[in-house]
Amino acid sequence: MDARFLDYYNRELAYLKELGGEFSASFPKVAAHLGMHGNTVSDPYVERLLEGFAFLASRIHLKMDAEFPRFSQRLLEVVFPHYLAPTPSMAIVQIPFDLTEAAKSTVNGAVLPRGSVLTSRAIAGVKTRCNFVTGHELESWPLDIVEASAGMLAGDMPGLGRQLRGKEAKGEVRLRLRYQTPGAAGRPNPDKLTFFLAADDALATLMYEKLIGHTVGVVVSVPGQAGQTMVLPAQALQPEGFAADQALLPNDPRVFQGYRLLHEYFAFPQRFMFFSIAGLKAPLAKLDTDVFELTVLLDCDPEGLVGTVDKSSFALNCVPVINIFPRQGNRLLVTHDGVEHHVVADRTRPLDYEVYRVDMVDGYDRGNNPVTSFVPFYRHVGNQYPGAQAYFSTRRESRRMSETMMRHGGRSSYLGSEVFISLVDAQEAPWPHAIDQLSIQMLLTNRDLPLLMPVNGERDVEVETDQAMRWGRVLKGPSTPRFAMADREVTWRLISHLSLNYLALRDQDPQSGAVALRELLSLYADLADPMVAKHAESIIAMASKAVTRRLPVSGPLVFGRGIGIEATIDEMHFAGSSPYLFGSVLEQFLSRHVSMNVFCQMSLHSANRGQIATWPPRWGGRPDA
């Protein structure tokens, strides 16, 4: 029973006794038979009547409380639907190029499309295997990282000043790579290589800051041959994971993409630990060797990287994955004794699947003949479904522990949630026509199964599509899935989300702007591990002003006005790791929050070490009102 019921009961009973005492004192003749004086009731029958009424009033109070979160859930389903869904488990998987399976002539790499399915190994005591889908397109190459190091700029690279356009290189991060297929005929010729920072989190964030924030050029060379070098510009090295076509969570046109970035960062920050080096095709074609080096030139001292960076700090052929996949569930038999129907993906294994989202519902009669298709009531925009008269709406509630789980414990701490579906017409009244079965197309997760899957082997997951990439191993994760928002928290989180926009940051003083941004970040910090959740509290000032900068466009010099934002953080909240990745996500969020006809430029400052980074001006991504 809900613990609030007893509190409501006591409050109702006390109110009735107090009001009855006042009534008896004001009208003693009329109320003489009530036997109520002050808070005491002398007549036991009257007291029983009051207790019964308090019981019924408490039940009504609970029902009224239950309706208010349902209303706010409906509103959230329109404006912030990602808040109503659980956060699935995520991981980083390395899928090497398998020369034993690929044709011997296939040496130019293989492409695994975004959205490809990976299946886990069997889990002890469970029949279901976990399904993951890739968040990026993966180009896998028959290359190995044989050596990696960091240090001050070596003396084997003369004459770099002219090629770096006046920028001074002080440090370097050097990667030595070797073809798995020796000989000129077997060498691949990639134009872009994508690397994952596979070191521990503290070192990986520091590497990310040095590589993304301080690169002035990339040298492609042959070890020991100073004459065979080519210099690529700093723009050749770029971070990966921020583009819309690299999203892990399902894209939804109703969700502002900046919120998705915050969601993914706090749920699994390692998914952003990728960078790529492009423009390699021409330099590699000129190198007659099976081993080559990529030297990233830095404009700073590589402090913290010297002696700690080695070949295990980097990984090729990696991709972020998420435990979410489409599936058509078992036919749902419709009973006519209620307006809601419990959605179960697989009746034989209900605890192995959790509904992330219901996409489409088809209704059938008793003879298995199609009757009508139901479209989302709260998700359609404008004339998305012309002529539609049949709709469905969903409601989610947290799954409760069964008596068996209470007695013996569950298989993990994550219980997940359950989804209920209602069939309605255009006025959200119950669907008036007879429907006997429902076929439901939905997005599912494997609930808590990723926490139980065996990892750290060479064959943690199996690739279902490409013969040149058959197996993969999990490098990071799987992360812990997170609950959807609890009912009682929905309203206040909705109000917090609706009350914040970038104008609030611009119009307020730096401390008030920091409070507003911390409030927004705290909504997503609940998804994070405790160490990452502290990042939301690190912002101590957020100032913004109008600035004039050269616009980031090609052609003649053009200057324009935009918004300059200075964020100041306390690095004590990062526990030895670098805040640069956090700043990068924040910069991407704010630039998307700005109108597309102006630019945004953000700088990150630390109360401990001053300015950390200033990002180049970026065009706003939000359409004008």
Automatic annotation (TrEMBL):
It comes from the Bacteria. Pfam families: T6SS_TssF (PF05947). InterPro entries: T6SS_TssF. PANTHER family: CYTOPLASMIC PROTEIN-RELATED-RELATED (PTHR35370), TYPE VI SECRETION SYSTEM COMPONENT TSSF1 (PTHR35370:SF1). This is Type VI secretion system baseplate subunit TssF. The lineage of its organism: Bacteria, Pseudomonadati, Pseudomonadota, Betaproteobacteria, Burkholderiales. The gene is tssF.
